[in-house]
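call fold(seq) -> tokens
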Amino acid sequence: FINGDVLTMDPDNRVGEAVAVRGERIEAVGTTEEIMALVGESTEVIDLRGRTLMPGFVDAHGHFPGSGMRVVSEDLNSPPIGGMTAMEEVLAALKRRAENTEPGEWVTGFGYDDTLLAEGRHPTRAELDGVSTEHPVAALHISGHMLVANSRALELAGISADSDDPVGGVIGRRPGSLEPNGLLEETAREGVLRLMQDMAIADVYRMIKAAVRDYAQVGVTTAQSGGTSVELTRGLGLFSQFGVIPQRLVLFPFAHEFGDSLLNGEYRAADYENDRVHMAAVKLVADGSIQGYTGYLSLPYHTPYHDDPEYRGYPAIPREMLFEKVAALHRAGYQLAIHGNGDESIEDILDAFEAALEQHPADDPRMILIHSQMAREDQVARMRALGVTPSFFSAHTWYWGDRHRDIFMGPERAAVMLSL
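ret:
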């Protein structure tokens, strides 16, 4: 590559004119004249014509290949990233997909946002039954922490009026009844998720190819999939080996998906890795999302949820269980990546990690506290003392900041989210 501005990102932050690459290695950086002296008969020469060449971006928080969902599922996002402004538009989009889907096959949509729809609410089971009774239908909330299912989808997942709320989740109910209204929060949604994600290999391929293009177009050369099942982990490794995914991948295996294998010696990272796939920290999800009212707070939400002025959300993993899981995984030698949005959840996470360190001291375990969205100043100080890395996801502030201020957190707490 010649005649450009080559950002080396080396300790001196040098900028070169040209770079020589042999195979997958950078061989030399220098002036155009110096690099042209290395050119042989088989060398491909690319003239940058004054443009900038820089290292690829490393995605520090992502869910590859989730951005490719749009090719297999209906995009229900609202402006500025979609077009849905009212419930009738959401339902019409799902109905169009149902009309073009074989009876019995799943009809899914993703990204609906109750706070940006004119009605200011979630779809209902009855409305999704109106989309189709021949198909299982599910609409995934933009937070990813809840979904709404129609009667057929609930039936396939075994969810009925007789179903108890699972630990760390809530089955929405119709007023004055135990009958599900279709809304499934946190762990309650997992059965439906597994069914709707059981796709044909051709659809998986299409989704991955779309995600590959999304990441490549913005210069991402290392992508993260922050929470993978055994099946997704194997699939991504296979598509990587076949050259379908050119990016390097960093995968966080879900603790609840890999289960006992993480502790009984059956799990071996090398069984899933190749030269472009790396198995990294083990992932736990300690609470939900602020914009879904499932983040776990020390003080009530600014606007009461279901008219409950004391509502503070809830943990996806109860405190005692969290202590046990963190201690076991830390003792086994894993780096941990724990999702925590609300400050009460963050407190539980830090308490559990500190207890695990006291029981089994380790040099630089570098636990990642994913999101750390509503972390207080005292909690950020604790993170530093414990060697915890807060993985702030600033896109939340860009996208939901006004609604955190006006709906979920109020002006005082929203003013310091993700900014300490």
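The longest helix spans residues 201-217.
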